[in-house]
Design a protein that fits this description.
The chain is mainly alpha-helical. The chain has 17 helices and no strands.
Length: 451
C-alpha cells in the first residue's frame, strides 16, 4: 500500500531553508484546511441559520481551545522527544515514546470529552453568554465535545508524523476531513435544517475520520515510529519525560485560553451582534495564527532533530530562517485581509452590524501579527532543545497575566470594543520583547539531548 515505505525525513544535513520550507508548507496547508472546515461551520450556519447561531458557534472558539489546550501541550512534549530520538537514532526510546504518547492521548481524550459534555452550561453562564444564544451555544458545544477524543488522538498522531518529518501525511488526512466536513455542513445545515447541531455533528464525523486515517497509517508504516496496538501502555519513565517537556506548554495553553475566555466574556457584554462579528473574525484569525504555529512547530522539529544530533550551528541558522518566513507570511496576509476586510467578514453574515464588528477586529489585529510570529518562532526553537519552561513563562506573562491586568485595571476606564481589541497587539509586543531577551541572554543553547 502506498505510504508504507515512506522514509523518515531527518533535517540534520542539507539546505536549511529548503528543509524548513518543505516541512512547513504541508503543516501550513494542513492547518489552513483545518481552519477552512472550522470556518465552514460559521459561514454555512451564519448564512442559513442567522446571526444568533453564528454567535453561538463563533463564541465557542475560546472554550474549545481551553478544552484541548493541555492535550496540545502533551502533543508538543511527545513531538520534541520523538524528533530528538530520531536525530540521535535511539530506536528503543523512540518506540516507547510513540506508544506512550498515543496511550496518554486516549486517556486525555476521554477526560476532555466527559468534561466538555458535563460542564458546558456552567462555563457558558460564567462567560456571560446572552440568553438569546445560550440554548444554541450549549447544543453546539455539547455535541462538539463528543468528538474531542478523536480530536486529541489525531493531534497526537499528527505530532508524531510531523516530528518524523512526514508533515505531508497529516496534510492528506486533514484534506479528507475538510472536504467531509464542508459536504456534511451543507447537507445537515442547509438541506436538513439541523442548525448548530448539524454543524457540530459534521465536525465530529470529520475528526473521527482524520484520526482513524492517521492511526491506521502509523500502524502499517515500516518506519521506526510504527505503532503496534499491543504495545500501547503508559510507561512511567517515558510518561514523565513527555509531561516534563509538554506540561509547561500545556499549562501555558490552558492559561492563555483562560485569558481569551475572559476577553470573550468582555465581548459578550456588547450583545449577540458583537459576539457574531468577533466570532466571525476568530475564524479568519486562524488563517494567521495557525501558520504561525506551523512555523513554530517546524522550528521545534528542526531544532529537536539537530539538537539530538549535536548540530547547534544548524539550530541557530534554522531559527533565523523560520523567523524570516513567519514575518513575510504575516505581513502579506495582513495586507490582503485589510484590503478585503468587508468582503471577508461578509462571507459569514449579511448583517451590517456584524460585519462592522468583524472589520474593526481586522483593523486592530492584522497589522501586528508579525510580532506574534517572531515570538512563537523563537519559542518553538527553544522548545526543540527540551527547555519548555522559559517560553511558557514568557507567554504566560504576556498573553495571560498582562491581559488579566488590562481587563481588571485598564478596560473599566475605556469600556469599549476598541479597548478589548487593542489589548491583543499590545500583549504581543510585550511577549516579543521578553522572548527576544531570553533568546539573546538565556542558556537554552547549552547541553545535549539525552536518550
Amino acid at each position: 500500500m502506498e505510504g508504507e515505505h515512506t522514509t523518515t525525513k531527518l533535517m540534520t544535513e542539507g539546505s536549511i531553508a529548503k528543509q524548513i520550507l518543505l516541512f512547513s508548507i504541508p503543516l501550513i496547508l494542513g492547518n489552513l484546511l483545518q481552519q477552512t472546515y472550522n470556518a465552514a461551520d460559521s459561514i454555512i450556519v451564519g448564512n442559513f441559520t442567522g446571526s444568533g447561531a453564528l454567535a453561538a458557534v463563533g463564541s465557542s472558539t475560546s472554550l474549545i481551545n481551553l478544552l484541548i489546550a493541555f492535550s496540545m501541550g502533551a502533543s508538543t512534549g511527545a513531538g520534541v522527544l520523538v524528533s530528538q530520538f530520531l536525530g540521535a537514532r535511539a530506536g528503543k526510546s523512540l518506540e516507547e515514546s510513540v506508544h506512550t504518547a498515543l496511550s496518554l492521548s486516549m486517556i486525555l481524550g476521554l477526560v476532555l470529552t466527559a468534561a466538555g459534555v458535563l460542564l458546558t452550561p456552567q462555563i457558558l453562564e460564567w462567560m456571560d453568554t446572552p440568553a438569546d444564544v445560550m440554548e444554541q451555544s450549549v447544543t453546539y458545544l455539547r455535541i462538539f465535545s463528543y468528538g474531542l477524543f478523536f480530536n486529541v488522538l489525531y493531534n497526537m498522531a499528527a505530532g508524531i508524523l510531523n516530528a518524523a518529518g512526514n508533515s505531508r501525511r497529516s496534510l492528506l488526512y486533514l484534506g479528507v476531513a475538510a472536504v467531509t466536513n464542508i459536504v456534511l455542513d451543507i447537507i445537515f445545515v442547509r438541506n436538513f435544517r439541523m442548525g448548530v447541531a448539524g454543524a457540530a455533528i459534521a465536525t465530529d464525523i470529520s475528526q473521527v475520520l482524520s484520526s482513524l486515517l492517521a492511526l491506521a497509517f502509523l500502524m502499517r508504516t515500516r518506519e521506526e515510529y510504527r505503532v503496534d496496538l499491543r504495545k500501547l501502555r503508559l510507561r512511567k519513565d517515558m510518561t514523565m519525560r513527555i509531561l516534563r517537556v509538554g506540561l509547561p506548554t500545556g499549562i501555558q495553553n490552558m492559561v492563555i485560553s483562560f485569558s481569551n475566555i475572559l476577553l470573550q466574556s468582555s465581548v459578550n457584554q456588547f450583545g449577540s451582534h458583537a459576539m457574531a462579528g468577533f466570532g466571525a473574525y476568530l475564524k479568519v484569525d486562524g488563517f494567521n495564527i495557525l501558520p504561525i504555529t506551523s512555523f513554530s512547530m517546524a522550528a521545534t522539529t528542526f531544532t529537536g532533530q539537530n539538537y539530538g544530533a549535536g548540530r547547534m550551528d544548524r539550530v541557530k541558522k534554522g531559527m533565523w530562517v523560520t523567523l524570516l518566513m513567519g514575518v513575510v507570511y504575516t505581513i502579506v496576509l495582513g495586507i490582503v485581509l485589510l484590503t478585503f476586510s468587508h468582503q471577508v467578514i461578509g462571507l459569514f453574515s449579511r448583517d451590517a452590524d456584524v460585519i462592522e464588528y468583524g472589520v474593526l477586529a481586522i483593523k486592530y489585529f492584522c497589522p501586528f501579527y508579525f510580532m506574534l510570529s517572531i515570538m512563537h518562532s523563537l519559542a518553538g526553537t527553544v522548545r526543540g532543545t527540551g527547555r519548555t519552561v522559559p517560553p511558557m513563562v514568557v507567554l504566560l506573562v504576556s498573553l495571560c497575566l498582562f491581559r488579566i491586568f488590562w481587563i481588571r485595571a485598564i478596560l473599566p476606564h475605556f469600556n469599549s470594543l476598541d479597548g478589548i481589541y487593542v489589548l491583543y497587539p499590545v500583549s504581543w509586543a510585550v511577549g516579543l520583547v521578553l522572548m527576544v531577551l531570553y533568546t539573546w541572554k538565556g542558556k537554552w543553547r547549552e547541553g545535549t539531548a539525552k536518550n
